[in-house]
Amino acid sequence: MKPFTKEENSWVFYDWANSAYSIIVSTAVFPLFYKAAATNAGVTPANSTAYLGYTIAIATFILAMLGPILGTIADYQGFKKRFFIFFFGLGVTFTGLLAFIPSDQWLLLLIGYTLAAVGSAGANVFYDAFLVDITTEKRMDRISSRGYSLGYIGSTIPFIISIAIILLAQTEMIPLSTTMASQMAFIITAVWWGVFTIPMLKNVHQRYYIERESKPIVTSFKRLGKTIKEIRHYRALFLFLLAYFFYIDGVGTIITMSTAFGTDLGISSTNLLIILFVTQVVAAPFAIFYGRLSERFTGKTMLYVGIVIYMIVCIYAFFLNSTLDFWILAMLVATSQGGIQALSRSYFAKLIPKERSNEFFGFYNIFGKFASIMGPLLVGVTTQLTGNSTSGVFSLIVLFIVGILILIRVPEQKNDLVAAVKNTSV
């Protein structure tokens, strides 16, 4: 394997930058900060978890609606980077602003979180689409997996700094309240995310594109409409997206709501933060491991492995009753969360025509984001009906079962798919 190029390194480095948001804001500090604010306001634990699920659903619905439209426009020369910069800026700005929202305003916290989440997820749509511009098809699995691995490693640095400040504040070793320490974590995340995105902004450029036309927006809507009508005829692509719709829903829901689950089980915030840190460390080598194994057993086979492991996670979650059980569950998740996401991204990138990567990654986004509406809603409703968060996690097994059954039916003949896509291009 040839050394990584400057473009490849700059691209994967964005995972290093953005993953700080994923672990600190989405997974660790914000859920705990929000849960404390909601509890102080008299909201029950089950209801606050449900409200967080509904908020995640709203944020993902917004991106699901915007993704294909903006993606289709971004296929024109010069637009991909502009859209990436806009959403990246939105995410960094509102992540930082979370630090300035009063801790007793739990509803305002959810609104700020929604805007930060839209920015982060929106930037990732165009970031993922840049994969076709920075490397060859043969190297996509390894590059995508390396990105996730660097993300796990890089995110641990601001995570450690943030957690150290929070723990020192809790033990009164520094003159800060726990609330102020958590707010500092949001600022650290925004700065880290912004600074380490610079290589991506400088060195990654749109190589494949559609030439600009006189009425790009009107023409983009026409192309999008035609693709929507015809996408069901692209058998491999359509079936893969359908499978992805289900299994990635379960993956994303478990990641974003894990600390809320742990809190409801009575696990202390200190233990939760330590568990999340170790999960990041363990996930890094496993993401690379998945990439290497995909070269030997194919990416699709490794996707099967990841889905089965998540099914085991759902079953085990139903019987959680101790901190040790949560540790075991977290380590199971760590073995597969990066691999299943990385290989899904590269598997899809191999199926699509490069010059229309944004349009098709827009559909990749809409299937993933609409799926992320269903998962949190499923957990929220199940948790409220049963009064038990573990039942909510267990309900996600349905998504993995449906996902793997559909994935089995995805044809392997990529050339037939690409021919079909090109024949229906505008």
UniProtKB/TrEMBL annotation:
Keywords: Membrane, Transmembrane, Transmembrane helix, Transport. PROSITE patterns: MFS (PS50850). It is a multi-pass membrane protein. Residues 236-426 form the Major facilitator superfamily (MFS) profile domain. The chain crosses the membrane at residues 12-34, 54-76, 83-101, 107-127, 148-169, 181-201, 236-260, 272-290, 302-320, 326-348, 360-379, 391-408. It is found in: Cell membrane. It comes from the Bacteria. InterPro entries: Atg22-like, ATG22/LtaA_families, MFS_dom, MFS_trans_sf. The keyword Transmembrane helix applies. The keyword Membrane applies. This is MFS transporter. It comes from Metabacillus rhizolycopersici.
